[in-house]
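Appendix B.2, paired examples.
Example (i):
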Amino acid sequence: MTKTFEELNVSAEVLKALKSMNFEMATPVQTKSINPMSSGIDLMVQAPTGTGKTAAFGIPVIDNIDIEDSSIQSLVLCPTRELATQTAAVMRNLTKFKPGIRIQALYGGEPIRHQINALKRKPHIIVATPGRMIDHQNRHTTRLGNVKTVVLDEADRMLDMGFRDDMKTILDATPEDRQTVMFSATTSREVERIAKAYQKDAQMISIGDLGKKTVDSVDQYYSEVELRKRESTLVRLIKDNHFKLSIVFVSRKHMADDLANCLSANGIKSAALHGDMRQSQRNRVMARYKKGDLQVLVATDVAARGIDVENIDAVINFDMPQDSDSYVHRIGRTGRANTTGVSYSFITPRDFKKFRGMMRDVNSDPKKVRLFASEEFVSKRTKVALESEAAARGGNAFEQVLNKEKMYKERKKYDNRDQKDGKPAYYGRKTKRSRKQA
């Protein structure tokens, strides 16, 4: 059962900010979390992405800030810089009518000196990634001795990403009597160990069967696709279904770049998002994606953390997720806010057993579909060849080459230059010995 924010005793200033953001009714996770967290007790909150978790902890954190105290009073740890910047932005919106509260985001990918200068303005709330928080602690640019509340957002992801020791170091630097609140989409043994070590009599809050809730809101399909046909199959899938916004997940950074270039060469506006990109680059990509200038975002799991975009039509698992939790997190990017999304998983024969095991873990039974490769697919090799010809012709000749009828023959020339009649060119070719015999 949900409540209005008035019923949750939210401060008048934050209530006014929520109304300006067109939020009137609290989500289930907000309804169950705001009052207990405001009272100062430790919480372990298990809820899927896209349920309003940021406001669930952001509202009580903001309402409990003492503006007269210029020390750091609350610390929010997030697994990625995207999630850190997004969380800080939401919390700043919530303080719209509490101008005295200062919030600072700390994350990698930008010069640390800018953050050091910002810390001199004495923020009340820090939103940080573990790695950059450790950097500031080592430089003695932050003091956590007066922290009242620590929030571990997406604690399971931080542990999966190897931040266990960093999280412990940061928590050890805060007072023992602090409030510790953990938000997690899944509960693993590692999450339970952290909770046992750093929480006291924590209240458990669970928003339904999390994996089941996420997968139920998404129509799931899988298809067995040969490795060499994955790119052309992806192109046809996106074009045939006319997806306006979609995310394609890959397992490696270089694959994200290559696949985004491949999709662009086939007339699909795409861009990559991965950890090797500068923060300014990532911000530009996300701005274009949210604006609708990009149709497809090709992302790694880590880079996609914190993406909060409404109306994503489809999630496509080009590469297999690492585990069932990653699968739930991936497909949870679609089918949000009471809408139904769709997901497709490309499965090779060697992946099938692992995939079925994941589906058992999340109690899901995706439908098998047959997908076909595009007959008008332009490979990376063809694109390079055509670009070379366009450069030789001069001007904007690349598009002209692509649009000509002879493109099909040119593509065959470059993509299948080692084949003849569907068989290797050397198939049936006479050797010197056979010619002599003839």
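Example (ii):
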Amino acid sequence: MWLPNHTMTHERYRFMHTTRISAQIETSAPYLVQATGMSLDEAVSFMGALLPRLKHWSRG
């Protein structure tokens, strides 16, 4: 597990690990398909509904 070193600022860490939801779905959906056997369309739809609810992407 990678952890940032103590000298890395929060802003730099946040910038380095900010990923748009669409990019995350594009990267992860094929793995979900492989792991579950669902279709790519189902995986994209599922992740499109799930990811915005996760703390990482919620801004409120």
